[in-house]
UniProtKB/TrEMBL annotation:
<keyword id="KW-0418">Kinase</keyword>
<keyword id="KW-0547">Nucleotide-binding</keyword>
<dbReference type="InterPro" id="IPR036554">
    <property type="entry name" value="GHMP_kinase_C_sf"/>
</dbReference>
<keyword id="KW-0067">ATP-binding</keyword>
<keyword id="KW-0791">Threonine biosynthesis</keyword>
<dbReference type="Pfam" id="PF00288">
    <property type="entry name" value="GHMP_kinases_N"/>
</dbReference>
<dbReference type="InterPro" id="IPR006204">
    <property type="entry name" value="GHMP_kinase_N_dom"/>
</dbReference>
<keyword id="KW-0028">Amino-acid biosynthesis</keyword>
<dbReference type="GO" id="GO:0004413">
    <property type="term" value="F:homoserine kinase activity"/>
</dbReference>
<feature type="domain" description="GHMP kinase N-terminal">
    <location>
        <begin position="64"/>
        <end position="147"/>
    </location>
</feature>
<comment type="pathway">
    <text>Amino-acid biosynthesis; L-threonine biosynthesis; L-threonine from L-aspartate: step 4/5.</text>
</comment>
<dbReference type="InterPro" id="IPR000870">
    <property type="entry name" value="Homoserine_kinase"/>
</dbReference>
<comment type="similarity">
    <text>Belongs to the GHMP kinase family. Homoserine kinase subfamily.</text>
</comment>
<comment type="function">
    <text>Catalyzes the ATP-dependent phosphorylation of L-homoserine to L-homoserine phosphate.</text>
</comment>
<protein>
    <recommendedName>
        <fullName>Homoserine kinase</fullName>
        <ecNumber>2.7.1.39</ecNumber>
    </recommendedName>
</protein>
<keyword id="KW-0963">Cytoplasm</keyword>
<feature type="binding site">
    <location>
        <begin position="92"/>
        <end position="102"/>
    </location>
    <ligand>
        <name>ATP</name>
    </ligand>
</feature>
Length: 298
């Protein structure tokens, strides 16, 4: 295997995992994009970041995109080189919109674009590598494949398939100023949950697949969760309160991933959006990204 291209450019979408009841399984790609250019060079590795993460991310080998490129090249048996990265980041960091998955998937797709035989890094292989780096495939799957996905892990590794979604599905994302690490959000989860709560979520996930496919009248009921959101409420109280208020008003609102952003699986009316903006929420209308990470001609 050899490096066949000196430079590649990748676009990768934000993602929202869980979608309420689908904990660690369901994910949705959103139309907010990171744009990453990777260049193989003879000198040392250097990373330039614009936008989200500017001034706070590593600028060398510890950068997550660099680590992912290296993992992809190693898997393909391709030679390592110095790397120059230019990252134009729009995916918010630390807010439950899949920024780390976007970085990992961008690096892996860049590695695939650099090598002479791209079939050595097919989507299944990249999902496996992304899951190793991320810990779970729920964000990596939609970042790689686009649209809505369900993912799972068995003895053979991680897998993902697309979930058909209605053409008119248009989510709203509410982004707070506060951040929260995924590790902090996971620490408050119990090791066991009541049987009734598990059964409740199984039913809601089945309902949610129908709702995403066009039965939008089911979205509010289908997004009920008992496995994780209530347990996380104390570490993201403004988010928990806003989700509750939105749901009481009839909106299918859930915590986006580990939070603290909120995903609403419908467009908000202007009055509701303005009221939230007045309380410090950034209101986004990103649409669903039908395509996952992909190379752009440079």
């Amino acid at each position: 295997m050899r490096i066949a291209r000196e430079q590649v450019r990748v676009r990768v979408p934000a993602t929202s995992a869980n979608l309420g009841p689908g904990f660690d399984a369901l994910g949705l790609a959103l139309g907010v994009w990171d744009d990453v250019t990777v260049r193989a060079v003879a000198g040392p590795t250097r990373v330039v970041v614009e936008g989200e993460g500017h001034g706070s991310l590593p600028d060398g080998e510890d950068h997550l995109v660099v680590r992912a490129v290296r993992a992809g090249l190693e898997m393909a048996g391709a030679p390592q080189a110095g790397l120059e990265l230019h990252c134009r980041n729009a995916v918010p960091h630390g807010r439950g919109m899949g920024s780390s998955a976007a970085a990992v998937v961008a690096g892996l797709v860049a590695a695939r674009g650099l090598i002479s035989d791209q079939s050595a890094l097919d989507d299944d292989t990249l999902l496996g590598l992304a899951t190793e780096l991320e810990g779970h495939p729920d964000n990596a799957a939609p970042a790689l494949l686009g649209g809505a996905t369900t993912s799972w892990v068995d003895a053979e590794g991680p897998h993902a398939v697309a979930i058909p979604i209605a053409a008119g599905l248009r989510p709203t994302v509410l982004v707070p100023q506060e951040t929260l690490t995924t590790s902090s959000a996971r620490r408050v989860l119990p090791r066991q949950v009541p049987f009734d709560d598990a059964a409740h979520n199984v039913a809601r996930v089945a309902l949610l697949v129908l709702a995403l496919g066009g039965r939008t009248d089911l979205l509010l009921a289908a997004t009920e969760d008992r496995l994780h959101q209530d347990y996380r409420a104390d570490v993201m109280r403004p988010t928990a309160d806003a989700v509750r208020a939105l749901r009481d008003a009839g909106w299918p609102a859930v915590v986006s991933g580990a939070g603290p952003s909120i995903l609403v699986l419908e467009p908000l009316d202007r009055a509701t959006g303005d009221a939230l903006a007045a309380h410090g929420w950034q209101v986004l209308d990103p649409g669903v990204a039908p395509d996952g990470a992909h190379l752009i001609d440079t």
